[in-house]
Specification:
The structure holds two protein chains of two kinds. Chain A is built from five helices and no strands. By secondary structure, chain A is mainly α. Chain A has a domain of about 100 residues: Methane Monooxygenase Hydroxylase, Chain G, domain 1. Chain A starts with a helix and ends with a helix. In chain B, strand 1 and strand 2 form a beta hairpin. In chain B, helix 3 packs parallel to helix 10, helix 5 crosses helix 6 and helix 12 packs antiparallel against helix 13. The chains are: A mainly alpha, B mainly alpha.
Chain lengths: ~160, ~400
Amino acid sequence: MGQYLPVFMLAVLAILFAAISRVASQLLAPSATTVAKRSPYECGIVPGRETLERFPVRFYLIAMIFIVFDIEIIFLYPWAVIYRNLGAGGLFEVLVFTLSVLVSFVYLLSNGALDWGPAKQSRVLSPMVSADRTTLTTVRRVGLDGRPDGDVNHDEEAA
Amino acid sequence: MFALDPLFSGTFDGAVFLIVLAKVVIAFALLLVSVLFMIWFERKLHADMSNRLGPNRAGPFGILQTLADGIKFFFKEDLLPDRADKRIFILAPFLSLVPAFLVFSVIPLGGVFTAEKQGIVTVFGRETYVQLADPPIGVLLILACSSIAVYGVMLAGWSSGSKYPLLGSVRATAQMVSYEAALGLSVIAVVMLAGSLSTHDMVMVQAGEGFGGILPRWNLIATGVVPFVIFVIAGTAELNRPPFDLVEAEQELVGGFHTEYSSIRFALFFLAEFMNTVTMSAIIVTLFLGGPAGPTFFGPALMWGPIWFASKLFLFLFMFVWLRATLPRFRYDQLMDLGWKVLIPISLGWMLLLASLNVAGDAGWNTFVVAGAAVLIGLVAYLMLAGAIATSARRREQAELEGSIR
């Protein structure tokens, strides 16, 4: 376990560093707290609603799917260290293992477990939304009636 | 093959303890100084890239700006929000900072990596490596610490009792967890080449003459570039740096998970964030660019290890700032799609391809047959995944047309 001694000592030093800066801050920092300062940050307005206690279930799904992959990865590491000694047999077993993970991954994907945001726009848009409708075609020019030519750009071109 | 730090192979006495203590203090100081430099460097370079001056008051070229900011944080009022879960709120910055320190302990910083020297240096009559620790699980320690760092972010947002931090931390957790899978899979290719999890062995494998006598024997080339690219992308996402900084998307989430933090607590988060940037660059250098291994020219050979390491490290620090100055932020669904539907399948497939080719080479099978079979299997896997994505899209469109909520 001697190999871990420096890691452990660095951890102790890091904790000490954090603790000392915490204590120093407590000694040096002013304390003039008010209710407004201690309330949740809402860009300056008084918080109107309680904080959310629930969030979309997809985040939980991600966490669970991650476990599937994390376990696969952690099984692959020991094999990767000695895969040359294991040869074709080891490779075959890993391929079978990967296949089983792949099948579950394909199942998850096809069920939309990893889909975010809205699906592709499938509604037919109304004719009011179209590339042909621009400000030139929809805004009526006012004050040009009766002129020899109603071209707006005419004056600019002449100048 | 499992090379361990020779410092601990002999008897354990006071001299060994003192050497360890000195190494710990030096590594600690080095990390802090490099973080101070990195924060200044990022602000200065980003300012240059957006045609501003950047910090220019404290010290020459504003290089002491970070130190001034750090001191200022001590004198700022430390607020504890009313709705916060107090204990966890106080604990979270420490959970973020301590793992950030620990990752650095397995990074090789120097040494001469020739067949005779094996990266060993002699200090006070004792043989040791120029790296803090070389446990046999090196790479796993890195992955473990980056997993623990997720807790700091998650608990910080969750315990703040405020909307924006909660949203930011939930996003951060899902993002970091997703990209950790891709990160872990791309490292496997490197582990296969080294035949060991120790970071020292990985540098050792990459030292010396490589391909054609011109190219270095880096894993970057030996693993075929793909794992490197995936590791850099996944590493950037793991750091929550732009373009993957949805965690603290200012326009939507104010400051993300640390919105409610002030004073030194915020400083610790900030420190951890930049420390992770430096160590992630160091990890990339160690795994794919040969770490401190490189040719030596004049002067003592020992001098060149840190020089090579620092110049390679600098390249990636520059890259991270450059990315931030250049790329716009991802949309959340794009981010998740990139992680799960692109990076994970590609890194898994590439790793299996490398393994098959190497095993085939050892067993003396026909390389072309194996490569053909691999391409065929890859094509089938691709068609399966593409089919699954198409099925899911079709189902969702159907559900949307029917007006049901999914």
